Amino acid sequence: MFNGLIREIAKVKSFDGKFLSLEAKFRPSLGDSIAINGACLSVVSTQNDGFSVELSSESSKSLAIENYIDKVHIEPAMKIGDRIDGHLLQGHIDAVGEIIIIKKLPSGTDFVIKLPKNIMHLVANKGSIAVDGVSLTINEVFEDSIRLTIIPISFRDTLFGEFKVGRRVNIETDLLARYVERILGIKNSHNKKLSWQEADFYASLY
């Protein structure tokens, strides 16, 4: 699990489509889970100046891997008892979005990101979302896109200041929204309504 707060911006040393080698101050152990631009990947080797992770064929197809060429966000997995300042993330990317508008504000910068239609029902006004591993709040939901506002401190501590219109970004929707969709989808497929007792039970899980 992760919480969407970037630990470090690492430098890409090499990427051959399968193995991604990074220069970083953080020192993981073999097998550790690290979120790279939001995607949970496993450490397969360590070096004096960084570490390497391996991408599966599935990951290569579902991530914006064209961004593994210069710098990337990294976040190590949480430990039990850690403070959660963002929101709970699994590092499982739901889709790839595209930045279509960047608008500077008196304080902060608006980003409008176009999302695939098959995940639009999982986003909500003032809900949580992760963009390239950064935990953010959705300010507005449109028909096929969302608007986010990046505050100055996030600009400083992430790569958002370097993002341009047209960039593709990894998107992870809210964890609870996915489970609610699954629960309600099963009920609807059997033409059954969710009882209040069942609703109370599912609510108790979260």
Quick structural summary:
The chain has 206 residues and is an alpha+beta fold.
Structure, described:
There is one protein chain. With 206 residues, the protein is an alpha+beta fold. The chain folds into two domains: 8-76, Beta Barrel (Elongation Factor Tu (Ef-tu), domain 3); 95-188, Elongation Factor Tu (Ef-tu), domain 3 (Beta Barrel), CATH 2.40.30.20. The chain has four helices and twelve strands; from the N terminus they run βββββαββββββαβαα. The chain has helices at 57-62, 152-157, 175-189, 196-205, and strands spanning 8-15, 19-23, 33-36, 39-47, 50-54, 71-76, 95-104, 109-114, 128-131, 134-141, 145-150, 168-172. It has a six-stranded antiparallel beta barrel with strand order 1-2-5-4-3-6. The protein has a six-stranded antiparallel beta barrel with strand order 7-8-11-10-9-12. Strand 9 and strand 10 form a beta hairpin. The longest helix has 15 residues, at 175-189. It is globular. 28% of the residues are buried. The model has no long low-confidence stretch (mean pLDDT 89).
